[in-house]
Amino acid sequence: MPPIIQFQDKSHVLGIYSSPQRKIEEGLEYLRIGFEENNEAILMITDELTKDEIRNEIIKKWNISRDHLLDLEKNAIINIKNSRKFYLSTNITDRDRITKQYSDLAYKSIKKGKRGLRIFGDMKVFFEQGYGKYVIEFEKLFPPLNDFPMIGICAYDLDDFKKLDQESRKILFNHHNLHITNNLYRNIFDDSTHQLTEHICMYLDMESQLSSFLPITNSLLRYLEEGLQQNQLCVYLSINILENDNIKMMLSQVSNLKFQQEDFMIIENSNDYYINAVCENLKRFEDLKKLIFEKAIRYNKKDIRIVSDIPNFLFKNKHFDQCVALEEWWDQTIEDLNKRHGLNILLLCLYDSNNFHNSSFKYHRHRINDNHSIVCDSDGIVHFNFDPYLESRKSEKAEGGR
Amino acid sequence: MLKNFKKNPNNKKILLITDGIQYYKRQLNKYNITNYRMEIINWKDIFTFFATSNYVINDTKPNNLELIILDISTTITIQDTKFNKLITTIEEIKKIFSDKRIFFILSSKSMRETFLSKMICIQDDNIRFKPFSIIDVIDLIAITNQKERLERLQLKDHCMHTYSSIEDKIKDAIKFLRIGIKNNEATLILLDTDIDLSVFKSHLAVYNIDVDNLHNDGLLKIEYSKDWYLSFNQKNNTMNQNKVTIDNESINRKFFNLVDQVTKNEGKKGLRVFGMTDYFFENDLVDEIVDYDCRIPRKYNKPILSICVYSNKYIKQLSENQIRKLMLTHKKVGFN
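ok -> structure tokens follow
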């Protein structure tokens, strides 16, 4: 079922689109479903097309005559608005005025025998008019669920969405109860944008992001903390743990969280894992798999979050084949634990983005990307452009597996 | 944890010789390397240390010494008179520890060139640069224990290696063949046209490899790549009268027939192929060879081990997409 017809009443949806054309096409389809199939009044707010152009599209695709459309507009069943006038008529967004417009149209539609109002709101005007930052304040004013019979999509162009910082994007995700990212925007720190089982490759500038005081970056610490808060089994396997005091330091960092000690596994002797991996002996990892499995069963954990930087050091020291072999082993292990035991593994492999200056390292990067279901940056934002062929390769793999 | 190492005499030992004892103690003592202990000594004390710890007497040489790391001072230069003294000392150490792997910590790439050109260090892998960290120590332990690159390849692997010179290709082809002989696996070497067969045979002779004997024993077959991959008509392609394409199916058939022959009729464990590809780049068959190579699976379902041999100068001419495909189609990839 396409996502746009899965909405419930009062959905407040975040939509991200690759192009203005796609945005308008999907917006009109979203509104058509409301109008034709759900007995809803509709409101289109955009500057991408003129009102007449929107009307022409509706006449062409919705099987409505021009006269009928004018009649529907007169009765406020079909409403087409210019976004600049609708959102920014007084050069500043007036939340009360906008809310009143929404509620007036929604209640009017009910009086006319409709179930409520369906809105497609194009947010581009905020960015065009230099209100990119203000759009967050505007969105924050609206709760994820509306009080009156109204559903809607706040529609963002990908290029505008990318301009927002991570915190702003997080606010947007939090203030909408459904997200249509069209696979254009995913963030590993936002659980709603990825699967429960993923093999994630994160490229980060280790030199600048690892402080001398902490054996882990703040974002990764947060990633593990989120796992602990969600009662997941969290595993940290890092070369940085070799330093004698680092385990204590790691534990002290997360000690403010209320979690059971058995929920957090910090793997000692990480050098042994590295040395054996270089020698193409993955027995240590097999033992680790067994350990994780036993712990998950014993403490009734279905979801497991693992962070490891061993592959990075294999890569950095030019053990490319061993690095790939280890990543392939993880891939099989994730699948095995999932299919045979129903365990969901989120494995995050860290790679230093400084590794890729030399051409042979760049070439081997294709092999790394190929072994991961997601490639993201240190902010957790999934970047398809790290390897434009990644997705097609995944499809090929999936088809090959059938 | 170093304290714990000292308690356990079974821990393997790493010997670090340096002028910066205090620095390395501060850097390394805070780490815990399972099963290893590090002994750090000063360059000026080295021979006294060897004498007192019986290192110089072969039969009492402790067998738990795993590797030696020589930290070359940042202040030393080739023009320095101390440099010659250093070389002499290193040669002495190499003699004493002829069976141990010796690594060097250098301060610059120019120093690396000097060490390699003067044969103070033979392998590039044995050199690390400052700052030297605990990760380097762990990596040195790992590479001391790992098998040599060509030894790691196994039957059924579809591999790719790139080379910068003909000499390096020939060197690896011979190494590859010798491993095959040791494993009772037949080897097929497909040469580039610029390698003369008699010259190649003379290289083999240096290693006492008798081509005729090996051929009779079914252990070696040498051909030119173009003869193996292209049919007669294709080779004589003129003015586009015959479009040259590599016939994937017929080549695969040739490989599979040969592997059946060597395994079923000649009692060999499998077939090893070292296939050079320069001819295709030199004769406008780049897309064809890349396409052919990318149709081969990463893992064979027959006992074949193949290395597709590319020259770095030609790899650089490929599109990003072609490189990506080559990287993904090979199980093991080495850039030399």
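The CA atoms of residues 199 and 205 of chain B lie 10 Å apart.
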